[in-house]
Amino acid sequence: MSPTLSPSTIASLHTLITTSTSGATPLLPGAIVLILDSSGSPLFTHTTPNLTPQTLFPIHSCSKLIGALSFLQLLDRGLASLDDPSLISHHLPELWGKKVLVGVKETEAGQKEYVFEDRRGDITARMLLNHTNGTGMSFFNEELRSYLGADLASINEGTSYFENLVRSPLLWHPGTRTNYGQGLDWVSVLVERITGESMEDVIRGGFFTPWVYARGDERGVGGNGVSTSDGDFWAHSLKLGDGSFMQLPGWGESRVDSADAWPGGKPTCRAWQMDWC
Fold this sequence. Notes:
By secondary structure, the chain is an alpha+beta fold. The chain has helices spanning about 5-20, 60-75, 85-90, 95, 125-130, 140-150, 160-165, 185-195, 200-210, and strands spanning about 30-35, 40-45, 100-105, 110-115, 225-230, 235-240, 245-250, 250-255, 270. It has a 3-stranded antiparallel beta sheet, with no helix packed on it. A two-stranded antiparallel ribbon has the order 1-2. Strands 3-4 form a two-stranded antiparallel sheet. Strand 6 (about 235-240) and strand 7 form a beta hairpin. Helix 2 packs across helix 8. The protein is globular and about 60 Å long. About 20% of the residues are buried. Mean pLDDT is about 80; it is low at about 215-235, about 250-255 and about 260-275.
């Protein structure tokens, strides 16, 4: 028997969403909720009335999906493995050689001294894909922000992605904890090193060209894009341990006007120049 939601559950969900998205200071600016069963049939839908087809949604980390698919294409071609640690030791020696940050102590001179221990267990591509490889992100992990210290302003996920990957230690032993971290970023580096191609060329050849998708904000594609922003679209900040905020750069918005855009040739596409994140 297919699962269902009771009328009282549906009513409670509607009330919860409405309460969370209304009033002078709503918890959320709006919400689109769709609950499906295992066969894909809808059990519940709700869209708050303040959202329209013109509402702009920032959708982040989209490259994680296409990066993972790029790796899985290599798996299908017999060029990669999910569980062979030699793939990581050979192609990602910077990651393979990392130790685990386990604490910090104060020296007699009053300086911070970070304590590390050797990694226990191997790192595999599967761990990179499912966020169990032991890495973190400065957006979410206070200990990583503390470790990067004054360099965080110039070496973070929004300014210098690869240097941030190289400088960041492991925060846990591989396979012992799930944490939203740098695994998919390392997957992109892994794909580039296996193929000897840039990630852009990999996804262009593996996805965009077969899909006959020629427009975009990628390098070398000018199109009819017209900049409509006065600077960063989403300049944001991190709250640090002492209560202060560190400003991070945002991503520039560009708007593409296309005669064949859906619906009716209206300018409906907005995109952001951003790193693999």
